[in-house]
Amino acid sequence: MRAAASYPRVRGKKRALLVGISYAATRYELKGTVNDAKCMSYLLRERFAFPADSILVLTQEDGDPYRVPTRENLLAAMRWLVEGCDTGDSLVFHFSGHGVQKLDNNGDEVDGYDEALCPMDFEQAGVILDDEINETIVRPLVAGVKLHAIVDTCHSGTILDLPFLCRLSRTGYWQWENHCRRPEMAKGTSGGLAISISGCGDSQTSSDTTAFSGGTSTGAMTYSFIKAVESEPGTTYGRLLSAMRSTIRGGGGDLGIPGPLGSFFRRVITFSCAQEPQLCASEPFDIYRKPFLL
Predict the structure, then answer these.
(1) Which of 7, 145, 180, 268 could form a disulfide with 252 if both were Cys (CB 3.0 to 4.6 A apart)?
(2) Using CA atoms in the order 184, 190, 193, 198, what is the torsion angle rounded to 10 degrees?
(3) Which of 85, 154, 200, 280 is catalytic?
């Protein structure tokens, strides 16, 4: 494929695909998405030692036509992310842009709707359904491979179609629910572990949130995620979720992101309190004991 020729030739155990789509000059335009990708790249390099040449970034600002986030390029980049993955690999997929819901046609969704990502050209080329995302970046994961998807869109709770969803119970604890409606259509991995962290539930929307530093902006979910990771290195998944929820519910929190990354932005000004961070996985685990590591 021609697009793959312009993508990094990865030799290490860590690689990442970061996508920020602004939908510039359309009525769907978003302001913070490209900055989200830049901030995630910085976090991966400085906090988690991802090599710069193992991070593929797709934005509309890129001069390389194969790194513009069209539907075709995005699917090619997703295949690049998991291609040849092997034991010990850590993969990251980050998407900041629009997400939508579509009627479920194969009966595998509990709520009757598929979730979907919107590429830059979604009005002409179509969206990317969760079924296709699952097939492309979840099913190829072999034993010993770990994928984290960090998704900052509307309707993103089960965007990878993973079978287990972690919800906050009435008693205040995060608990796993099995969302595999049709066991014969189980959408797990090929032995690896897939985890998605998203900005809101399938029925919720994520507002175009602004944080300012030199005129730049960022998404609420990306901001709350980076703040939680930077504020408490070595945190568990449970503490990460709770910290993200607290930041969103608290309108950004009183303190900004500590350390050098804080120079990217000050704090988020507007949050949607209806947003609830979501955790999904290909298999359940103890979120209060398992450390969050990329």
Answers:
(1) 268
(2) -60
(3) 154
Q: Check if the beta carbon of residue 99 is closer than 8 Å to that of residue 159.
A: yes
Q: Which residue has the higher pLDDT, 277 or 20?
A: 20
pLDDT at 162 over 80: yes
Dihedral sign, CA of 244, 248, 103, 136?
negative
Tens-digit pLDDT profile for residues 181-197:
666 666 789 999 999 99
Of 83, 250, 110, nearest to 185 by C-alpha is 110
**Containing structural domain, residue 88:** 3-207+277-281
Per DSSP, 262 falls in state G
Report how many domains make up the chain. 1
For the segment 88-107, the average pLDDT, to the nearest whole number, is 82
Side chain identity, residue 75: L
123 backbone dihedrals φ, ψ, rounded to 5°: -70, -30
Over 50: is that where the pLDDT of 239 sits? yes
Q: Is 154 a catalytic residue?
A: yes
CATH number at residue 202: 3.40.50.12660
CB 68 within 8 A of CB 56: no
Does the active-site annotation cover 94?
A: no
Assigned domain for 212 exists: no
Q: From the candidates 85, 94, 98, 166, which is the catalytic residue?
A: 98
Residue 151 lies inside a defined structural domain of this protein: yes
pLDDT in tens, 65-96: 999 999 999 999 999 999 999 999 999 999 99
Cα angle vertex 235, ends 231, 242, to 5°? 80
Please check whether residue 271 lies inside any domain of the structure: no
